[in-house]
Amino acid sequence: MDLFASSKIMTPIPLRDGVLSFLAHLALPLPNDALLARLIAETAWRCERITVWGKQHPQPRLTAWHGDAAYAYSGLTLAPSPFTPLLEEIRAAVEAASGARFNSVLLNYYRDGRDSMGMHSDDEPELGPRPAIASLSLGATRTFVLQHKASGERLRLALSDGSLLLMGGELQHHWLHGINKVTRKVGPRVNLTFRLIV
After folding, report:
1. Cα dist. 114→56, 118, 191 in Å?
2. Is residue 55 part of a domain?
3. Which domain covers residue 148, as residue numbers?
4. Of 35, 46, 82, 112, which one has the greatest count of Cβ atoms within 10 A?
């Protein structure tokens, strides 16, 4: 069975020590290209500096945080902006497909192949012990890499325009994930990761 076949139901991806589900095409309130253009134009993007191994670095992408509460990671604390009407509509579609509830979203803007996200786990205390995190991709396809912390086992998933990935269970305790830089020319991508701050 093709795990990436178009469907209205999220398809489980076999994974030890965690829960992972995928939907190739989420039904959204506007066409994907229109949503991408609006999010790029209307979002107050920031280039934050994070602390990794005791040193500060600029994040290799732009970000924005919307929701009900602040969020802290890598020595950085993000003050929330309120959900916009557009983000509310997208959240409703993500919640309907995933069956989960979210009160915050981190937007990541990958301007080209030089923008990336280092390997990490979303295991901050305010996300709770078994967080559900829904990741919606718009724009250029990028490869999402998961790596098991103990075994080093790797899984690569192509996250295409309009796809939705749901991470849950013990995944954040046992796996790292990230987006590598690429040398080939790729267009812009906006990724929205919906979370529940508890």
Report:
1. 19, 12, 15
2. yes
3. 18-195
4. 35
Q: How many CB atoms lie within 10 A of CB 143?
A: 12
Helix, strand or coil, per DSSP, at residue 61: coil
What's the one-letter identity of residue 154? Answer: R
Give dist(CA 72, CA 55) in Å, integer: 17
Domain count, the chain: 1
- Cβ distance 157 to 22 under 8 Å? yes
Q: What is the rounded CA–CA span in Å between residue 39 and residue 3?
A: 28
Q: Is 11 part of a structural domain of the chain? A: no
Helices (H) and strands (E) in the chain, counts: 3, 15
Q: Which long-range contacts (CB under 8 A, 24 or more apart) does 4-9 make?
A: 4/158, 8/97
Which CATH number fits the domain that encloses residue 103? 2.60.120.590
Residue located via tokens 């990761």: 193
Is residue 10 in a domain? no
What's the whole-model pTM score? 0.91
Cα–Cα distance list, 125 to 5, 103, 128, 129, 195 (Å): 35, 16, 6, 7, 12
From first to last of its 198 residues, the chain has per-residue pLDDT tens of 233 333 468 999 999 999 999 999 999 999 999 999 999 999 999 997 777 778 777 888 999 999 998 888 777 788 899 999 999 999 999 999 999 999 999 999 999 999 999 999 999 999 999 999 999 999 999 999 999 999 999 999 999 999 999 999 999 999 999 999 999 999 999 999 999 998
